[in-house]
Specification:
3 domains; two-stranded antiparallel ribbon; binds S-adenosylmethionine
Length: 452
């Protein structure tokens, strides 16, 4: 490394980004943004400790990275370099650091953020866990090309780009340090699901003085939220909490942010294309499929033949409630890494093991996915329990099939695949809880359960 912001910290931390923004209104916004995250580190931790358990989520769960970026084929015994750009209070860095440590992957995770206060929280969390695979740097992601870092296999940038004066420049900076075979996990605000938020931001700007800081504005904001009429667009949006009963940092981030914008699916596709990227997948993928919302076959047929992106753009309009887009992106020239249901695919579960889930499944089981204020239900195929109890994160679909045939003499491969497709549609497409892997030199995911 030739230079890192932590080796040469700016006197007050602000100079870093001001220098990169070149002065003017953009610099003023950048300074306001940095001040916000010094005063209100995000996400707020509110007394949570590492002994409460590992906080996991999307993007950047290791199974998602494996699936969406590497087509289920990454050998995790090989070194893994990740950058968490705008790491906040550490959720992604800690999750990645812990998951890599758990599977024995030799990882180097670089946490980068402008905010010293956020970094201090993240660093304490890593220490509490005894993680030594995370390196902490205070600085701007806009300067990432100058830090002398080796290319990254994976870059997490969750909830950050939409706060930059130029998200395009931010993404381009990240792509400049991405390995050609790597990818990114992004979260960008969704335009439709955030209906009403920008009204409140605008009202607050209209009734506060420029020198009234965010802490001083909070009591007024809480009062406003509590008094909005039923006709207000935020109040009419059931997907976004609109009462004042939330931590300060949550309210500031949502309603008093000096700089944020929201994206539609085509906006994101354009942003990615500008930086030479393509969207590998949104997650959960089913949230971006019109068929998830429209059960009528005549309507569904009209979407046949549309590409994934066109379907996604219409699905977000049908759903109307996507406030956060979570997606994985890879360099445009790469073949699509999305793995398919091949016989040698190994189904891997995120939260639980198949045997435990199988015991909870009865004939009338249905899977329920909560998409904010909308619950989507998918019926479980008839052989769900039989299949689930054989999913141990190491057994391939064909081996599951052969093991099942002895108990189910009428079963053939086609019938099995129909069942698997339905199950995968629910557990992967809707719940983002099942992924596919392929055998390689070093399968690291531990066997979860012996078949009972
Ligand atoms: C909304 S928080 C998201 C934190 C974290 N990514 C998460 O999702 O939990 C945004 C974070 O981005 C950081 N940030 C904003 N602009 C940045 C920049 N140009 N370079 C590095 N960090 C930045 C802020 O300091 C803040 O910690």
């Amino acid at each position: 490394m030739t230079r890192s912001p932590e080796d040469e910290p700016a006197a007050d931390g602000t100079a870093n980004i001001l220098a990169l923004q070149g002065g003017g209104p953009a610099a003023a916004n950048a300074a306001a943004l940095q001040n916000q995250y010094e005063a209100f580190p995000y996400p707020p931790k509110d007394g949570a400790t590492e002994s409460d358990g590992l906080r996991t989520g999307s993007p950047s769960h290791i199974l998602e990275i494996d699936h969406y970026i590497y087509g289920g084929e990454r050998n995790w015994t090989k070194p893994f370099r990740a950058l968490v750009a705008g790491g906040g209070t550490g959720d992604a860095a800690i999750m990645l650091g812990q998951q890599c440590a758990d599977i024995g992957c030799p990882a180097e995770i670089i946490y980068l953020d402008l905010s010293a206060a956020s970094m201090a929280i993240a660093r304490n969390r890593a220490q509490e866990r005894g993680l030594n695979n995370i390196i902490f740097h205070q600085g701007s992601l806009l300067g990432v090309a100058d830090y002398g870092w080796q290319p990254f296999d994976y870059i997490d940038c969750c909830g950050v780009l939409h706060h930059l004066a130029s998200p395009e420049n931010g993404l381009a900076a990240l792509v400049s340090v991405l390995h050609p075979e790597g990818g990114l996990g992004l979260m960008l605000y969704g335009a439709f699901g955030r209906t009403g938020i920008y009204d409140v931001q605008e009202i607050m700007r209209g009734i506060t003085a420029a020198d009234e800081d965010q802490a001083a504005q909070l009591p007024l904001l809480r009062k406003l939220l509590d008094h909005l009429p039923a006709s207000n667009r935020l109040v009419r949006n059931p997907g976004v909490p609109h009462d004042g009963n939330h931590p300060d940092a949550e309210l500031v981030d949502k309603f008093l942010h000096p700089q944020d914008r929201a994206y539609t699916v085509p906006d994101i596709a354009a942003l990615c294309a500008d930086s030479g990227l393509k969207i590998a997948s949104f997650a959960p993928a089913g949230r971006y499929d019109p068929a998830t919302y429209l059960v009528d076959n005549t309507l569904r047929a009209r979407f046949n033949g549309l590409g994934l992106l066109a379907k996604a753009a219409l699905a977000e309009r049908i759903a109307g409630n996507i406030a956060k887009h979570i997606l994985y992106a890879v360099p445009s020239g790469r073949p699509n890494p999305r793995p398919g249901l091949q016989p040698n695919a190994i189904p891997v579960l995120k939260h639980s093991d198949g045997a435990t889930l199988a015991r909870k499944i009865s004939a009338d089981t249905a899977f329920q996915a909560r998409f904010d204020d909308l619950t989507v239900v998918a019926a479980a195929p008839s052989l769900t329990a039989e299949i689930m109890r054989r999913i141990d994160n190491q057994t391939s679909l064909e081996d599951i099939y052969f093991d099942m045939v002895s108990d189910n003499p009428g079963l053939n491969w086609n019938g099995f695949i129909v069942q698997i497709r339905e199950l995968y549609g629910a557990l992967h497409g809707l719940l983002n809880a099942m992924f596919l892997r392929y055998e390689n030199d070093g399968p690291p995911f531990k066997k979860q359960n012996p078949i009972p």
